[in-house]
Amino acid sequence: MVLIKVFGEGTEALIxxxxxxxxxxxxxxxxxxSKLYCRFGNGLLYEFVPGSTxxxxxxxxxxxxxxxxxxxxxxxxxxxxxxxDDLDYPMLYKKLxxxxxxCKRLPEFALEHVKLPQNINYNVLKVSNLKSNLFI
Length: 136
Description:
This protein is an alpha+beta fold and about 140 residues long. The chain is built from 6 helices and 3 strands.
C-alpha cells in the first residue's frame, strides 16, 4: 500500500520542501520512517505504515506520551546534524518566525473569523503577542 502526498498551492512558503525530502531520506536510512518511492512536481509517493493517529485523549495519556517522548529522543539521538542544521537556533523558533512573517501578511481581521476552542486566548494569536507569549 502507498500514500500520495500532494502539496497544496503556496505551502512552500511555510514548508521547506528540499529539507522535508532530506529529513524523510535521513529518517528512512535509520529505519525511522517509511520508504520514499518517488517525488513529483507537487508531491511524494511513499510507503504506508499502519498505525493510529493521536487525539486529545491519547496524547494526554501518560503511557502514550512517554512512548512518544522515548521515540522522539531515539530519533534525535540517531540522526546526525548536517551542514543545513543550525544548532544555535532551534528549528521550532525558525518555524515560528516563518509563521509570524506569514501572519503579518494577512489582514488583521483574518483571525477574528477563525473559530477557536473556548480555552484559547485570542490575544495570544495576535502577531504582536506571539513571541512574548511563547517566551522567545
